[in-house]
Structure formats: C-alpha cells, structure tokens
Design goal:
Helix content is 39%, strand content 19%. It is α/β, with parallel strands linked by helices. Strand 1, helix 1 and strand 2 (44-48) form a beta-alpha-beta unit. The longest helix has 20 residues, at 227-246.
C-alpha cells in the first residue's frame, strides 16, 4: 500500500534512483518504469553505478536521490557526515563461490586456490575475510585472491577458464551458469557449480540464521529529512519488489533493457533464488547492528568507526 503524496508538497522535476547491476536494483527499475512515483516527480530515472567508488562519488556529490547501497557503505557514509536515511534492507545475502568443482563445501576446502574477487575492501571481500578469519584462515596467505573491478569481470575470468573459482553476487552467478550451459542444475555434467553459499557459511560459523543484511535503499540529501518521503520510497520499493517476484519474466525483461550487462534469463533466475525482502530500516536494526559489530571487530573503519545512531534509521536526530 502506497502512502499519500503528502510525502512531497510539490512535484520534483527529476528524481534519480541509482543502483548496481545486482538484485537490489531490480525494484528500482520497476519503480522508474511503472509510474509508481509519478506523484513525486515529473521524471523518474534509473542510473547504474558500476563499482563502490562510483557509488561513493554519487553519494558525496548528490548524484542520486535514492541509492541502492551495501549496508556497510551506508553506515560509513552516514558516520562521515553524509546526509542520508536508510529506508530498508532488501537483500539478505546473494554471495556465492562459483567453482569448477562440485566437491567444495566450506571455505577451508579452497585453501591454496586462486579466487577471482570483485570490489577489493568492499562487501564481497569483507564478508569473505570475516568468514575466513572466523575459521582460523588468513585471507591473504591461505588463498590467492585475484582482485577485479566488478562481479562481471570476475564472471568473465571464470567463463574464460582463467580462474577456477570466483566470488559472485546474483545475478552474476546466474549469468555465469547460463553462459556455460551449467543451468539448470539438472544437466549431466555442468561446467560450473554454486559451490559455497556464503550465507550458509555465515550462519554456520556465527551460529546465526543463514542470512546477512547485505544491501538496501538509502534516501539521500535534503529529502532524507522528510520522514514521509522516506516512508513513501520504502513503500514503493516494497510494492515493486512484490511485483518483480510475482512477475519475474516481465521484471527481468525490464531490467535487462535498462542494464545492458544483464540478460533477462539471468535476472529471472536470480529473482527465483535470491533472498529478497524489503524490511524497513528500524525493523532491520537488530540484524544490522549484529552485522556491523562483526565487521567492526575486523576493522572499525568499515562502518565509519561506530554504530550509526538513531538518525540513520529515521528514528530521531
């Protein structure tokens, strides 16, 4: 159910929604195309960010009104003084090791192996490092990490047989499986496998549910001070996500048309397997604070040195 248009007294000439080529962005594309925010703005646009550095520039320079963002980056930006409110957490772990071997079960099974790793010192690398360290492994010494700019770059190395393992997020996982005809899993001899589910590893190692508050939506700049606007964006996102899950093929076609890196088939596959649920930020706070605490044990700078205060969640300030 959408909130009334009192979220914005006058229509904006332009509203920019920005996100990566990942599952967190699928509802943003649907919001931009469906007219769901027509009462807020004359024109609603989706803009792709390709790596965390570009994301940070957009956040610091006001390049977007609504940003799909890894949750640690949102906390870090907020603690550095960037004006934002986290509207929701919607992506609850979409990280997988994709490998040529079907025999791998835990990170320890990869000891000594080369792994293509996107986004050095950002979410995939951070989670991998935390889980390795919690198992007594040194990420830098016990593995040969080959850092690349994006998940798509890691996927290409895997497909080209230049590496045997890559840490990927959906839909790059589904793209790799599709491109090598390893999908569906019922094929007799698939070339690639979803070898290690990092969400399952998180749950096993930390004795938690097998899910992580990985990414969500933040409202940026002056509009972050308008609670009704933030609630309106969250409600529209939640409705768009429900629509994507209910109409996967249609959503996938729209996303592939807007994000040329992705195929409609892989987007539909990703929607079928990704744990997507738009949980308002205040309701996700306990899980976020546990997640942030684990990251801060490894390096407090990952979240900007401290847990975000009430204002991050739209609960004061």
């Amino acid at each position: 159910m959408l909130l009334p248009s009192a979220a914005q007294a006058e229509k904006l000439p332009r509203l920019v929604l920005a996100g990566p080529a990942a599952a967190v962005s699928f509802p943003l594309v649907r919001m931009a195309e469906s007219g769901a925010l027509a009462d807020l703005a004359e024109r609603v646009e989706f803009v792709l960010w390709r790596d965390p550095d570009q994301l940070r520039v957009m956040a610091l320079e006001g390049g977007a009104d609504v940003l799909a963002v890894p949750t640690n980056v949102a906390a870090n930006l907020y603690n550095r003084g960037v004006k934002l409110k986290l509207a929701n957490v919607s992506t609850w772990g979409i990280l997988w090791l994709v490998s040529r071997s079907a025999e791998l079960k835990t990170l320890a099974d990869l000891k000594g192996e080369e792994i293509a790793m996107p986004f050095r010192a950002d979410m995939p690398d951070i989670v991998f490092g935390v889980l390795a360290a919690r198992q007594g492994l040194d990420p830098r010494r016990d593995f040969r990490l080959r850092y690349v700019a994006t998940p798509m770059d890691a996927m290409q190395l895997l497909i080209a047989r230049r590496v045997d393992h890559a840490l990927l997020a959906e839909p790059a996982v589904s793209m790799a499986l599709r491109k090598t005809k390893s999908f569906p899993v019922g094929l007799i001899a698939p070339e690639l496998h979803r070898s290690i589910d990092l969400q399952a590893e998180w749950g096993r190692v930390l004795q938690r549910p097998a899910r992580m508050p990985q990414a969500g939506i933040a409202v940026m700049g002056a509009r972050a001070d308008n609670p009704a606007f933030v609630a309106r964006i969250q409600a529209a996102y939640a409705e768009a996500l429900r629509g994507c899950l209910a109409e996967r093929a249609a959503c996938a076609r729209s996303v592939a048309a807007r994000i040329d890196l992705l195929s409609a088939e892989a987007v539909a596959d990703a929607l079928a397997v990704s744990p997507l649920e738009a949980v308002p930020a205040p309701a996700a706070r306990a899980e976020l604070e546990f997640f942030y605490g684990v990251l801060a044990e490894r390096n407090p700078a990952l979240i900007g040195g401290r847990l975000p205060d009430d204002g991050f969640y739209g609960e004061g300030r």
